[in-house]
Design a protein that fits this description.
Blueprint lengths: L8 H7 E12 L38 H13 L3 E2 L6 E4 L9 E4 L6 E10 L2 E14 L3 E5 L11 E5 L6 E7 L9 H19 L11 E11 L9 E6 L2 H20 L7 E6 L4 E7 L9 E2 L10 H9 L5 H12 L3 H9 L3 H9 L4 H19 L10 H12 L5 H12 L5 H8 L8 H13 L1 H8 L6 H11 L6 H13 L2
Parallel strand pairs: 11-12
Antiparallel strand pairs: 1-9, 1-10, 2-5, 3-4, 3-14, 5-6, 6-9, 7-8, 10-11, 12-13
The structure holds zinc ion.
Zinc ion (ZN) binds next to loops.
Length: about 500
């Protein structure tokens, strides 16, 4: 689909130094919109969550949403930003069908938060991403282009616009350019967005559902020859909306730009579209001349002057942030950085934490989520969190194993039942009859049958080849469909075959 020539990634980083930067838009989870009382619920009938203010009817006046301002300051504090004591909204003027006012209410030279940072970890190394600013604005409506093959305006028969999203509070978090990360640039970019997402979740300011567009990234990428004192011309890949796509878009742009630079072609400063299916980008609008948005202070809204004492209250009330939480859990569970990284990368940290809180041993909880359950999620092509088993149920399963009610092999069968919707682990043990078999007539019979069925093995064992006993243990386990306890079986066999 794409005709871009791409350089091999290893060759790119051998000769070029990448610089990336991210502008991340987060839709806040407030109940109402930024400047009016309209609901923000996702998926409503088009144009049902609108009013004179967000449709920009003549005479309508905005009132700022206090919760959105508070949320923005809390995000700034979590990112170590300086909180402005004086901040203003500004009009960003441009014409497009999805902005009814003919301008977006945003912030320009007086944003709420500036000069923060976020540390992210990749392969055991810590990288600091500097945050330039965090500001508050409003989302646009949504254009729907009907009739074309691509869903883009080009080739469409007609276009519709839905203003339900217009005016939803949007926080924009802008990083400073991140140089000096070399080959790790795609991964550091991804790790930054992943960590930012965790922080936003911990703050409870947004549901951060990337697939619903709650969090969207514009990814800037540029290359310069290694050792060059100047940075290259950057491209801006718009609206990248998954962690994987952030990483892929940086990687793709690095490979594409390097091939052009090798050929002596100048990189155009432009916006680009990212294509999920191919992982490629394609040219959008050229940005050679900076758009003149004719920013000016919004005359219909009063300035925001956050009181220092109030800001300190907000700071003191911040929840435990993800990095601190990981450090605490790592110490409590006695695991290494690497083991913690595995948990985070597998998306299992929250699940393991909840399983431990439900009473499981941390080691057992990790074993089940990273082992058997990860394997099943992979087989089914779903996320761990989408499996039909809750942390509480995994904790119950761990308890059944710890009590000796089931062994590991039976526990996996219990899991089958739980995942099939047959109830709690205990209910599955009862209904499927999965409890470990104690010494019983049934087990006696199985042991006797194994001895009777393999006289040659019995002779070997009696002749001194005790290791051959394993074959008999195996036969009993098979006969009892894994329900016997292997140690018990071995002891019974030894008694009967060797008389000891
Ligand atoms: Zn409204």
């Amino acid at each position: 689909m794409s005709s871009d020539r791409l350089l091999e990634f290893d060759d790119v980083v051998a000769r070029y130094e990448p610089v990336f930067g991210l502008e991340t838009h987060v839709e806040l989870g407030t109940a109402s919109k930024m400047f009016c009382g309209c609901a923000t619920t996702f998926g409503a009938e088009p144009n049902t969550h609108t009013c004179p203010v967000c449709l920009a009817l003549p005479g309508a006046l905005p009132v700022a949403n206090a919760t959105a301002i508070e949320d923005t300051i809390r995000i700034g504090l979590a990112l170590g930003c300086r909180i402005a004591s004086w901040s203003r909204f500004a009009r960003k003027n441009y014409f497009y069908p999805d902005i009814p006012k003919g301008f977006q209410t945003s912030q320009y030279d007086e944003p709420l938060c500036t000069a923060g940072h976020l540390d992210v970890e990749v392969d055991g190394e810590t990288y600091r991403v500097e945050i330039e600013r965090v500001h508050l604005e409003e989302d646009t409506g949504k254009n729907l282009h009907v009739g074309g093959a691509t869903g883009r305006i080009h080739g469409a028969d007609h276009s519709l616009v839905d203003f339900n999203r217009a005016g939803i509070p949007l926080v924009e978090i802008v990083t400073r350019p991140v140089p000096g990360v070399g080959a790790k640039a795609p991964e550091v970019a991804r790790a930054y967005v992943a960590e930012l997402r965790e922080i936003l979740l911990a703050l409870g300011v947004s549901e951060v559902r990337m697939e619903q567009g709650n969090l969207r990234c514009d990814v800037n990428t540029s290359l310069a020859p290694v050792g060059s004192l100047e940075w290259g011309t950057r491209t801006e890949t718009k609206n990248v909306n998954s962690l994987r796509s952030v990483e892929r878009s940086v990687r793709y742009e690095m490979r594409r730009q390097a091939a052009l630079l090798d050929d002596g072609v100048r990189i155009l400063q432009e916006t680009r579209h990212f294509h999920e299916d191919t992982g490629s980008t394609s040219a959008g609008r050229s940005k050679e001349e900076a758009t003149d948005y004719r920013y000016f202070p919004e005359p219909d809204l009063v300035p925001i002057a956050p009181d220092a004492a109030w800001v300190e209250q907000l700071r003191a009330a911040l929840p435990e942030l993800p990095a601190a939480r990981r450090t605490r859990l790592r110490e409590e569970w006695g695991i290494s950085d690497t083991e913690m990284a595995w948990l985070v990368n597998a998306g299992a940290l929250g699940l393991v934490t909840d399983t431990v809180e439900a009473g499981a041993d941390p080691g057992d909880a990790r074993k089940w989520w990273l082992g058997e359950l990860s394997r099943r999620a992979k087989d089914d092509g779903v996320e761990l969190t989408d499996l039909a088993v809750t942390p509480a149920q995994v904790a119950q399963l761990c308890a059944l194993v710890a009590a000796g009610t089931v062994n590991d092999q039976l526990a996996r069968q219990v899991l089958d039942g739980v995942l099939a919707g047959e109830g709690s682990p205990q209910q599955v043990v009862d209904s499927r009859g999965l409890a470990v078999m104690g010494e019983s007539d049934e087990l006696d019979a199985a042991v006797d049958a194994a001895i009777a069925g393999a006289p040659d093995v019995v002779e070997k064992v009696r002749g001194g080849k005790v290791a051959a006993l394993g074959a008999l243990v195996g036969a009993v386990m098979k006969e009892t469909r894994g329900k016997a306890d292997a140690a018990t079986v071995r002891r019974m066999l030894e008694e009967r075959v060797l008389g000891s």
